[in-house]
Amino acid sequence: MKHVCVLGGSGFVGSAIVGKLSLSGYSVNVLTRRRESSKHLILLPNVTVQECDVMDDIALSNALKQADAVINLIGILHNSKKNSFKSRHVELPKRLAAICSKLGIKRVLHMSALQASNQAPSAYLKSKAEGEECLRRTKELQLTIFRPSIIFGRGDGFINLFASLVKLLPIILLAKPEAKFQPIYVEDVAQAFVEALDNTDTFGKSYDLGGPKTYTLRQLVAYVAQILGKKRIIIGLNNFLSYSQAFAMELLPVKLMTRDNVRSMEVDSVCVTSFPSFLSFQPQALEAVVPAYLNDDTPRAAFNRFRARAGR
Ligand SMILES: NC(=O)c1ccc[n+]([C@@H]2O[C@H](COP(=O)([O-])OP(=O)(O)OC[C@H]3O[C@@H](n4cnc5c(N)ncnc54)[C@H](OP(=O)(O)O)[C@@H]3O)[C@@H](O)[C@H]2O)c1
After folding, report:
1. How many CB atoms are closer than 10 A to CB 275?
2. Looking at ligand 1, which residue's alpha carbon is closest to its atom 25?
3. Does the pLDDT at position 312 exceed 80?
C-alpha cells in the first residue's frame, strides 16, 4: 500500500494516524471539507490535503483515483438534520464501498465504535453498526474495522470536556456515573491502524480496542479533578435526572451532551475480547499520559506560567 487516502484525517484521531503514516513513508492524501482545518498536516512529509465534499459521489470518486488504500474516520456524535447519523455513518460507508469497488481499491480500514450493534440502545451505536454492515456486504473489499472505547490524548473531546467542567464548577452533577469505559490512547489507536494497513491477517476482521483498565465515569471525573488539584463534589444523577439533564443540554446552542449520548452509556464501553494479538505493543495507561496534557506541559504553556508569575 503506497498511496493512502484518509477521510476525516484532520480530526483528533485522524491527525495521529496521518502523522504515523507519514513517518512510515506512506504517501497520504487527506480529504477535508475545509483545508484550513488541516493546516497542521500540510507540513508533514508525503502528506497532501485536498478539499472534497465526501458526500458527493463524483468528487469522492475523483479524490480516490490514485489510492491503494482508504481509511474512513468520519464520524459525528450528535445527530442533526444537516449532519445525520444515517448520512455520515451509514450512507457514506455504503457509497464509499461502491466507489472503491468501482475503482478497484480493495483495502479499506474503517473506524466504528465499541458496542456498535443493531441491538444497541442509542442511534449513534446502531448507525455505526449499520455502517459496518454496509462495508462487510461488499465482499471484494479487504476490510478491517476498529471499534474503540473512548479515546484519550492531547486534544481529546472527553477528558478535556470534564477538565473544563471541573475547572468551572464546584459541584459536578454527573449523568450515568456508573457507566464503564476502557479508555485507549490515541497514539495506540493510530498505531493499530498503521500496523493493520499492510497486514493481510487483518483482512475481513473487526477489532475492539480498549486500554489496560476499566473505569466508571465517576472515577474518571474524580481522577481529572485530582490531576487538576481541584476538590470537587461529584453528585451522580439517577437515570431520570441523567436524561433530564441531557434534554436540558440539547436546548443549548452548543451541544455538549444529548439523550442519545446518555443512551450510549446504557451499555458499558468495555471490550469482551483481549487486545488484538497482531499488534506489536500493549496499550498505554491513562495515568501515564493524561497528567502531561491536563497540566499543559508544553513549552508555550511554561512561558505563560512564567509570565503569570512575573505579573505580566
Ligand atoms: N474520539 C473518540 O473517543 C472516539 C471513540 C470511538 C470511536 N470514535 C470514532 O473515531 C472517528 C474519529 O473520531 P475523532 O474523535 O477523531 O473525531 P473528530 O476529531 O471530530 O474528526 C472527525 C473528522 O471527520 C470529518 N467530519 C466531521 N463531521 C463531518 C461531516 N458532517 N461531514 C463530513 N466530514 C465530517 C472532519 O473532517 P473535516 O472537518 O476536515 O472535513 C473531522 O476531521 C469517528 O468515526 C468516531 O465516531 C471516536
Report:
1. 18
2. 8
3. no
Q: Quick one: pLDDT band at residue 305, thresholds 50, 70, 90?
A: low
What the block records as the C-alpha cell of 98 is 461502491
- Ligand 1 lined by 88 (C-beta under 6 Å): yes
Please indicate whether residue 80, judged by its CB atom, sits closer than 6 Å to ligand 1. no
Assess whether the C-beta atom of 160 lies below 6 angstroms from ligand 1.
Answer: no
DSSP the chain: --EEEEETTTSHHHHHHHHHHHHTT-EEEEEES-GGGGHHHHTSTTEEEEE--TTSHHHHHHHHTT-SEEEE----SS--SSS-HIIIIIIHHHHHHHHHHHHT--EEEEE--TT--TT-SSHHHHHHHHHHHHHHH-TTSEEEEEEES-EESTT-SSHHHHHHHHHH-SEEEESSTT-EE--EEHHHHHHHHHHHHT-GGGTTEEEEE--S--EEHHHHHHHHHHHTT---EEEE--HHHHHHHHHHHHTSSS-S--HHHHHHTTS-B--SSPSPTTSSS-PPPGGGTHHHHHTT-SHHHHHHHHHHHTT-
Contact criterion met (CB below 8 Å) for 88 and 54: no
Going by C-alpha positions, the residue among 84, 76, 147, 73 that lies closest to residue 108 is: 73
164-193 pLDDT per residue, tens: 999 999 999 999 999 999 999 999 999 999
Amino acid in the structure at residue 155 = G
> According to the model, what pLDDT value does residue 299 have?
65
Atom of ligand 1 nearest to the CA of 54: 33
For a substitution probing ligand 1, which of 5, 10, 13 has the most ligand atoms within 8 Å of its CB? 13
pLDDT mean across residues, the chain: 95
Q: Which domains does the chain have, with CATH numbers?
A: 3-152+184-210+269-279 (3.40.50.720)
